[in-house]
């Protein structure tokens, strides 16, 4: 095989250079150890923000909302009009097909929410019969 052409980085178009630099920065290659330490700091900060967000929600969560069927995602979806229901279903299906791992986690969340909704509805029915 023979080399027929050579392209230097200086000859790349601007968008190709920006893409290369972005990938190198994202991987921690662009500025060496400083870049890697910055990425570690961003990762730790993101984890801390997630934990603090959940903690703040836990502190301010509604009292006794666990068995209220009106607080489930399924019930909120049922309360939407049919165009909004169709749109959210279409978006969820398209995202699930484009991003299978996200689709699987969305499906698992919906199954858990549905089971929670059924349990809450059963509790309400049992209370209304008594």
UniProtKB/TrEMBL annotation:
Residues spanning the membrane: 37-57, 87-112
Pfam families: PepSY_TM (PF03929)
Keywords: Membrane, Transmembrane, Transmembrane helix
Protein name listed in UniProt: Uncharacterized iron-regulated membrane protein
Source organism of this protein record: Raoultella planticola
